[in-house]
Amino acid sequence: MRKSAIPSSRPRKSWRRSANRCRTLSDSVAPGSAEAKGFCLVLSAPSGTGKTTIGELLTTGDPTIVRSVSMTTRKKRPNERDGIDYRFVSADEFKEKIRQGAFLEWAEVYDGVLYGTPRDAVERVIRSGGVALLVIDVQGGGAVKAIFPEAVLVFLIPPSLDSLSRRLKQRGLETDDQIRKRLDKARTEMKYLPAYDYGVDNEDGKQQSTVDAIRGIIATERRRISRWEQP
C-alpha cells in the first residue's frame, strides 16, 4: 500500500517568489554589467596557429573584450602597427620595465627576443568588469594563472604539425632553420595542453568557427556564480 505524505507544519515556499528573487539577482549581476567581476582570458598556441588573428576577431563587435597589447623586443613586421599589434621597444627599455615590476608576466621566447604583458592595463580591464584578453605563449599562461587563479586558459590547437609548417612557410618571414626551431618548440608547447581549461581546434579556413567556440566559452564563464558581485 502506498503511504500518504506526512503533512509538514512549515509553510510551503512560494516558487513564484523564489523565481522572482533569482531573476532579481541575475539581473543585478548580468554578464557585462558594472557589478560583474572581470577576468583574464589567456589565448595560447604554437607560433603560426593564428592566435593573433583569432584574438583580433574576438574583440570585434564586443567592447567588453579588451586585448592586452604585449611589449616585445623583436623587430616590427611590415604589416604590424606599433601600439596596436605590439609595443616595440629596445632590450634596454624592456629590462628597465622588468626592474620596475611593470609586467604581469614576461618571457624570452625565441633567440633572445623578449615578450611581456603590462600589468596596469590588464588590472584596469578586470576592475571595470571586462574580459582582459591575453594572447601569449604557454610560459606566460602559467604565470598569469598563478597571479589570477580565476583566469581562463584557452589553447588553440593546430590541425597538425604539417599544417603548421605550411602556415609558417607561407608567411615567408623566417628561414628553414628558424621554422624548424619553431616546430620543435610547438611539439613542446603542445605538452602544456592538459594545464589549460579549454582546447579549441583552429582548422584551416574555419576561423569563424574558432571565434564562435571561444565566445561560447566566454559566455559560459561570465555565468559562473563565483564571478558575480554579491549584493
Give a brief rundown of this model.
By secondary structure, this protein is an alpha/beta fold.
Secondary structure blueprint with pairings:
Layout: H1 15-28, E1 39-44, H2 51-59, E2 65-67, E3 71-72, E4 87-88, H3 91-100, E5 103-110, E6 113-118, H4 119-127, E7 131-135, H5 138-147, E8 152-157, H6 161-171, H7 176-190, E9 198-201, H8 207-222
Parallel strand pairs: 1-7, 1-8, 2-7, 3-4, 8-9
Antiparallel strand pairs: 3-6, 5-6
Could you explain how this protein is built, in words?
By secondary structure, the chain is an alpha/beta fold. It has a single domain, classed as P-loop containing nucleotide triphosphate hydrolases (Rossmann fold, 3-Layer(aba) Sandwich), CATH 3.40.50.300. Helix content is 41%, strand content 18%. It is built from 8 helices and 9 strands. The strands form 2 sheets. Strands 2-7-1-8-9 form a 5-stranded parallel β-sheet, sandwiched between helices. It has a 4-stranded mixed β-sheet with strand order 4-3-6-5. A hairpin with a 2-residue loop joins strand 5 and strand 6.
The major β-sheet equals: 5 strands, parallel
CATH class: Alpha Beta
Q: Termini separation (Å)?
A: 49 Å
The CATH homologous superfamily name equals P-loop containing nucleotide triphosphate hydrolases
